[in-house]
Specification:
It is built from 20 helices and 22 strands. Helix 9 (247-294) packs antiparallel against helix 10 (302-334), helix 10 packs across helix 15 and helix 14 (388-404) packs antiparallel against helix 15 (465-475).
């Protein structure tokens, strides 16, 4: 309780002043006072001093207590004012209290002065503390980084903090005493929260994730924490709600969940892919190993041997395709696909693919399916420059895929100038097979995905073919799209740049290149590999010299250096093909040198080796690839 009093005593009786002071001091108050008894003097003192209590007589010669009260309140509106008088009536006292006096005491009953002062000063203390709390609360309320609004029991806004105005874009006048419904994007949320708040017990809170609307109409995701407010009697008089914008965190949370689901799906797909790949690899291996063992049976008939050899060859080709697909998708994912552009006869290419598919085991399983090559292009648009092996792989995969999923019916193959882009050729492979459901279409080009990836699926395959086709078509500068209806059939169409060219030159009457004036050196330690090369190019009339190792190749070049081209195997006994080629280059051998290797390319055939070699062939390769590579190096086409 405040015991130090600095009092302004407005009293014309010096005796009464002393009595007042002595009474207070007698009750342990430390009293400092100034005595005035005129309005002029009171003004002067109030201007230059301060007090925590004012005691005034009511009746004085120059002015009265009501006038003194007015002067006091003009200077010290919060300082308590007590009227001590011997003549004041009850009506006047009531008027004085209404005008701001804290209390009044009759001079003939001054024993009430101390209790009155004690009560007044306690109220002052409480009021001061409440003021300090209000200031702290207001500072906290206004400095919060979270948006806050306070609503009454009718859910009208009665207060907001500055951050609320910033977040929602309103001014104070636009929201004060307005209903909060306008802030909710979904009005159902407004009513649901109202019900939750109504059901809350004392000192409980509710947390909600809501979509709210700003003044400009934009919306955001907010976390709203609402606390009901109660008075001293436990009656609710409103709610205070704190908002935090969680749009970004919710977006990140959704992305993390999506990434987690994708990672889990990727793991599942890779596991399914590995299981499927194991099946696809082991199936031809089982046939190869099994029939190879049967070939050693002494009583085997010639027809049986031929059938077993045919099966081994067929399954060997299947295995090579699987391995090629795996290597191809690995290069695609590594971004290391390289194009080798050569002249390509589209008519010949498609007829060749059709013939191979007509003779394939898959076609023999589907004798009722007719492969229809609908048109052939004129020579002026039939010949293009492209990567023929990439295009062959694309067309073979797409047509074989159509054949696989068409138990009976027809496959129509069309190719013609693109109707929307004259610089492109458009291809179409249309079947009337099982088709693809609409919800499966978006995933058919995904790596490791198949329309049916269950263990009970009817159709085999690695699930890499369409993904490889899409990537290679895009690498060639084209686009692919699929239209399908389950139970009706599928149409796959794609475009590639036209890149017109003239026909192959240097050909004899039988269609083989005329290389009779050409001499090449084949450096190959494996006799079977050499025999394959010799059989492929012997009809061109080319002159061939064979070196079985690096040392023999160097000796041959020293004796007869007039070779037009060298085929160099990289893995040779005694001296590697790379070392031999370096020696040739140091000896100023300028003819093209084509590397042959079973190593993974282009990782092995990097920039370092490109300095020495003009091209590379990756084993195993087809005869067309060999012809094209030699043709390109000899004639630059």
């Amino acid at each position: 309780m405040e015991k130090n009093l600095r009092i302004l005593i407005v009293e014309d009786s010096e005796y009464d002043v002393r009595i007042i002071v002595e009474i207070l001091k007698h009750n342990q108050y430390q009293v400092e006072y100034i005595n005035v008894f005129s309005a002029e003097k009171m003004h002067e003192v109030c201007k230059n001093d301060h007090f925590n209590l004012i005691i005034s007589d009511y009746t004085m010669p120059d002015f009265d207590g009501i006038q003194a009260l007015g002067i006091a309140k003009s200077y010290f509106p919060d300082v308590p004012f007590v009227i001590v008088s011997g003549t004041i009536g009850e009506e006047t006292a009531v008027n004085a209290m209404k005008s701001g006096a804290s209390d009044y005491i009759m001079k003939d009953n001054l024993k009430k002065l101390v209790p009155a002062v004690k009560n007044i000063m306690e109220k002052v203390r409480i009021k001061k503390e409440l003021k300090e709390v209000e200031i702290k609360y207001a500072h906290l309320f206004n400095s919060m980084l979270e948006a806050i609004f306070v609503t009454d029991t009718s859910r009208n806004v009665i207060n907001v903090n500055p951050q609320f105005l910033v977040l929602f874009g309103y001014s104070m006048d636009e929201v004060l005493y307005k209903p909060t419904k306008v802030l909710f994007k979904d009005k159902k949320d407004y009513f649901d929260i109202g019900k939750k708040l109504a059901d809350l017990g004392e000192e409980k809170l509710t947390i909600n994730i809501l979509e709210l609307v700003k003044k400009d109409g934009s919306s955001f995701i907010a976390e709203a924490r609402s606390y009901p407010m109660y008075n001293a009697k436990g009656v609710s008089y409103g709610v205070i709600t704190l908002f935090r914008d969680v749009t970004e965190s919710k977006r990140m949370e959704a992305e993390l969940i999506s990434a987690k689901e994708k990672a889990e799906e990727s793991d599942r797909l890779k596991s399914a892919f590995m299981d499927n790949m194991s099946h696809e690899v082991r199936t031809p291996l089982n046939a190869i190993i099994g029939f190879s063992q049967l070939l050693s049976m002494p009583d085997l008939q010639t027809e049986e041997k031929e059938e077993f050899i045919s099966l081994i060859n067929s399954r060997g080709n299947d295995l090579v395709r699987i391995i090629s697909d795996i290597l191809e998708i690995s290069k695609i994912q590594a971004g290391s696909i390289e194009l080798s552009t050569v002249p390509c006869n589209l008519n010949n290419l498609l007829n060749d693919i059709k013939q191979k598919l007509e003779a394939s085991p898959l076609k023999k399983e589907r004798p009722a399916v007719f492969i229809n090559l609908q048109n052939e292009l004129k020579s002026d648009i039939n010949l293009i420059n492209t990567d023929i092996e990439k295009l062959r792989l694309i067309l073979f995969n797409l047509i074989e895929n159509a054949l696989k999923y068409t138990p009976d019916g027809q496959i129509d193959i069309q190719f013609q100038p693109d109707a929307t882009n004259k610089d492109c050729i458009a291809f179409s492979i249309k079947d009337n097979g099982i088709g693809i459901s609409a919800y499966k279409l978006p995933i058919i080009f995904d790596v490791f995905r198949q329309v049916d990836d269950s263990h009970t699926r009817i159709y085999g395959g690695t699930g890499l073919g369409l993904s490889i086709c899409k990537s290679l078509i895009e690498k060639l500068g084209g686009e692919i799209q699929v239209k399908s209806q389950e139970g009706v059939g599928t149409e796959v169409s794609f475009t590639i740049p036209h890149n017109k060219t003239s026909d192959f030159s240097h050909k004899d009457d039988n269609g083989y290149p005329d290389w009779s004036a050409t001499k090449i050196l084949v450096v190959e330690d494996n006799s079977q590999n050499y025999l394959f090369i010799e059989m492929v190019i012997k009809n061109t009339g080319i002159q061939i010299e064979w070196a079985k190792d690096g040392k023999q190749a160097i000796d041959i070049m020293q004796k007869t250096p007039d070779f037009d081209l060298i085929l160099m195997d990289l893995q040779l006994p005694k001296m590697s093909g790379i070392e031999v080629t370096k020696i040739f280059r140091e000896q100023n051998v300028t003819c093209p040198i084509i590397a042959q290797t079973a190593f993974s390319i282009p990782e092995h055939f990097n920039e370092k080796y490109q300095i020495e070699f003009d091209d590379y062939l990756q084993k195993p390769y087809k005869k067309e690839i060999l012809i094209q590579s030699i043709h390109k190096q000899l004639f630059g086409e």
